[in-house]
Each structure stands twice: as C-alpha cells, then as structure tokens.
C-alpha cells in the first residue's frame, strides 16, 4: 500500500490518522502544531516538513483535515503548499468542513497540475472519529472516488458519493442546518414545557417515539436536563459552518431564515464566553430568554 499524506492533526485528524495506521497504511504527516505531529510520529508515522514535503513523499493520496477554508487554501496553494510538491495522478481528499465554492476553486487549481480533488467532510465528532464510524459525504468524480473508497472506509461507517466536487460540502452544510435548527426546536419546546409547569423529561419520554423524535432530541434533550454541555461539537465550529451556510445560500439567492436565526443564537452564546461548549448549549440560550432552568437538579 502506498504512503498516505495526512495534513491537519487536531481533535479529528489525530484519531482518523491513527485508524489508517491501525489498518496497515503508512503515513507521512504534517501540522503547524509540533505536539500534534509528535502524537502520530510516536504511532509510527513519518514527519513531513511542510504540505509540499508531504505531497512529495506521499503516494497517490493526500488527506487534509483542517479548520476552515482559509487554512485549506493556505495548505493547498500557499508558499509551501501541496501544489508545490504534488505530481500528476495524485488525489487530494479534503475532509475538512469548508465553503463549497472554495473546494471547487481549489479543485480547479489542482487539476491544472493533473491532480484530482475530492471533498469529503464528515459527520460525527471525536468519539466516532476514534471508533472509525464517521459518516463521510464525498463530492467528485466517481472513478476517483472508487480509487480512495477503501481508505475512507477505514475512517467511516458510511462513505457516500453525493455528486460532483463541492457536493460533499453542500451535504455537510445541509446536515449542519438541520442539526442546529433541530436543537433549537428541542430547547424552545422544552422551555415552554417548563414555563407551563410540565416536567421536560416527561415531555421527552412522551414524544420521543413520535414524529418529533430525532437523533438530536435523543442526544441533546438529556444534556439540557443535566446541564451537561461538554463538547461534543463546539458552538464555535457550528458558527463557522453557519457562516458557510449563509455565504453559500446568499451567493445564489436561496433564503435560509431559520439558519440565520439559529446562527444569531449561537453568536450570542459565544459572546458570553460559551463558544467552547457543545451546541446543545442552545438550551442555555432559551433558559436565559425565558427565565427558566431546564435542569432537573440545580
Ligand atoms: P482542530 O482545530 O482540532 O484541528 C485542526 C488542526 O489543523 C490543528 O491541529 C491545527 O494545528 C491544524 N492547522 C491549522 N492550520 C494549519 C496549517 N496552515 N497547516 C497545517 N496544519 C494546520 O479541528 P477539528 O475539530 O479536528 O476539526 C477539523 C475539521 O473537521 C473542521 O472543519 C471541523 O468543522 C470538522 N468537524 C469537526 C468535528 C468535531 O466534532 N470536532 C466534527 C465533524 C467535523
């Protein structure tokens, strides 16, 4: 198996890269944070000096798992970027959650060097990254997808090709819209129950198997009742995703009023210093708005 390049070793990148090593792949890795690189080197990976160096040392596939569009653009096109070390026939698989338009434009720049690109953002947090059970949504050419599918399947329980380059990011944005709005709906409903003197936990038990039931209700309502907002998925990351939702929807004149509203709620939470909490902390927003506590025990 040829060596895989892996750039971006944060909360998600470290366990994803470790799963590839556990599956028998050899890796060459890079991150601006030396401590993160060390974690992978001690697990058997080779150290790369820059994204260009990783591209030069990697075989067919180079994976990136970075915070957002500016970092992915820098890693691909910057002074020591992948573009300066890559060669024809390689594939860049960007698994970060970034703006779809940026994915498409990076894919265009790489194509001029004969390098293919897939966008392959993920759903599922650190725990699923560790277990290798992420949901991976991929955009790009189907023949390129077939070449990297086995590698992706070592990091995810589901690996779905959803369309052309950028379609993976669009799918991820849709996911984030639905999740954020759903959590806000849970918090809004539960705070009404509390204001009316009906115990939210009993409302939850009564409705969870009906049409209002959802993975968000199952995961986030108990957190609100326990006041447990450790991440999870951080508010700061969800705000970043909402920026990408609104930038995308506005650029094509598609209206997304609920997303704009929930983004504002998250911005208010972040403004109070809660940006590192789980996005279930929308419960705190509604507690303040309605003067109630959703907690069962103070
Ligand atoms: P993170 O901030 O923990 O990790 C990002 C890593 O990129 C860091 O190690 C950082 O040092 C590195 N980095 C930043 N700029 C760099 C550069 N120019 N060159 C090399 N390395 C650089 O983020 P994360 O939580 O691992 O998330 C990564 C992506 O996955 C994000 O787009 C996020 O939205 C998405 N995501 C995260 C989660 C989650 O629960 N954390 C879930 C699903 C998707």
From TrEMBL:
The active site is at 172. One of its GO terms (biological process) is organic acid catabolic process. This is 2-hydroxy-3-oxopropionate reductase. The keyword Plastid does not apply. The lineage of its organism: Bacteria, Thermotogati, Synergistota, Synergistia, Synergistales. NCBIfam families: PRK11559.1 (NF008592), tartro_sem_red (TIGR01505). Keywords: NAD, Oxidoreductase. GO terms for molecular function: 2-hydroxy-3-oxopropionate reductase activity; NAD binding; NADP binding. Gene3D superfamilies: N-(1-d-carboxylethyl)-l-norvaline Dehydrogenase, domain 2, NAD(P)-binding Rossmann-like Domain. Residues 166-282 form the 3-hydroxyisobutyrate dehydrogenase-like NAD-binding domain. Residues 3-163 form the 6-phosphogluconate dehydrogenase NADP-binding domain. InterPro entries: 3-OH-isobutyrate_DH-rel_CS, 6-PGluconate_DH-like_C_sf, 6PGD_dom2, 6PGDH_NADP-bd, HIBADH-like_NADP-bd, HIBADH-related, NAD(P)-bd_dom_sf, Tartro_sem_red. The keyword tRNA-binding does not apply. Coiled coil: none annotated.
């Amino acid at each position: 198996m040829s060596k895989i390049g892996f750039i971006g070793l944060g909360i998600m990148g470290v366990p994803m890269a470790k799963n590839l090593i556990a599956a028998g792949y050899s890796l060459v890795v890079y991150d601006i944070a030396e401590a993160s690189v060390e974690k992978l080197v001690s697990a058997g990976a080779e150290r790369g000096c820059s994204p260009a160096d990783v591209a030069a040392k990697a075989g067919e596939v180079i994976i990136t798992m970075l915070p957002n569009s500016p970092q992915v653009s820098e890693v691909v096109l910057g002074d020591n970027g992948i573009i300066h070390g890559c060669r024809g026939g390689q594939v860049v698989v960007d698994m970060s959650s970034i703006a779809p338009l940026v994915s498409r434009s990076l894919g265009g720049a790489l194509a001029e060097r004969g390098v293919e690109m897939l966008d392959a953002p993920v759903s599922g947090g650190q725990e699923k990254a560790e277990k290798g059970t992420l949901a991976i949504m991929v955009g790009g050419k189907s023949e390129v997808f077939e070449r990297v599918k086995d590698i992706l399947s070592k990091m995810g329980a589901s690996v779905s090709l959803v369309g052309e380059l950028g379609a993976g990011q669009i799918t991820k944005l849709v996911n984030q819209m639905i999740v954020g709005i759903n959590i806000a709906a849970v918090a809004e409903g539960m705070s009404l129950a509390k204001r009316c003197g009906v115990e939210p936990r009993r409302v939850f038990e009564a409705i969870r198997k009906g049409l209002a039931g959802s993975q968000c209700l199952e995961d986030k309502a108990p957190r609100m009742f326990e006041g447990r907002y450790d991440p999870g998925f951080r508010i700061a990351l969800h705000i970043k995703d909402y920026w990408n939702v609104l930038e995308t929807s506005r650029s094509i004149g598609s209206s997304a009023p609920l997303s704009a509203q929930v983004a504002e709620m998250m911005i208010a939470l972040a403004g109070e210093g809660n940006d590192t909490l789980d996005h279930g902390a929308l419960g705190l927003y509604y507690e303040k708005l309605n003067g109630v506590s959703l907690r069962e025990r103070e």
